[in-house]
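Give me structure tokens for this 315-residue protein.
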Amino acid sequence: MSWIEKQHPYPHGKTDQRIKQQRRSYVTRFIELFANKVNEMSASYMQCHRDMLSKLLTKDEHDTAVKILPAFWNCIHDLVAAQRSFSIVFRSFGTDLEDVENAFNAFCKRYGYDGSRSDAPNLLLRSSHIGVINCDVDNGKSVIFGVKKRNPIDREKQTKNMELKDFYKLDRMKWYQEQQAHGDENGIRILSHEPKVYEYLKQQSLQQKTMMLSDDYVWWAMHGQQSNGGKMCILNDEDTDIHQIFFDDNLKFDKSEIVDVRKLNIKDGTECVSDTQWHELQRKHLLKVEPLHVILNDDYFTQSIAKLEDAFLAK
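Here you go.
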């Protein structure tokens, strides 16, 4: 009910009968929907629900459940057909990255986005471009490529229950450094501090390399799940030919909260600007993905990119 009241507020705090009736209509729709009753108001919602299930339960060419929505696949086809230079970086706090990797590489092989076509880029996701993001006080935001799992300490309950001052004392980078020392010298690459991270990601993106990163959920949780502890996104306002877009369904309506945007022209990228520059960022770089829309609209990402790009080019 609070969401409905927020979306349809009374003007100047005074009851408005028209808005009051509108609020009640929403409540009625959902009450009757859950009671399995179909009426003029609930019929459209139930049809929408059936359409969503149809999309999500459809099997792919390997007869497995859908891991990536059709809107994403269509967007890649559109970008390739338009001969656009682009790079994809998968980001997640979750543990589903291996499933996404398998689904994405199967898609690339099926449509020739694996280097087999002269008229299409090689978008295959390689192990060398899979990694994690680790945050700490000494190194800032670090990217470790060549690893597919996080430091085991991140999954321990004891770590998650620590006081922040004790958490800061943990050397969570040590485990990755040990993996690097024990492995092939070209196998694991550790990049620390925002300018260095930005330059490497930029270099790989310009080569249209696909990347996948497990974000530092523990760091975000320990910082109250606020923007300045969220998923790193480093921008450089001087790179006017590079347009970064971050899609996330957990972005808020009035602030980021889950994406930590840094700009290299502001304190060398050491300060979070997600909330202070929210209005500009949501016009040009950050998009809250609405699950309902992206499931039902197979052109969702293509249309969203076009809108954000128009705003970016308009400056």
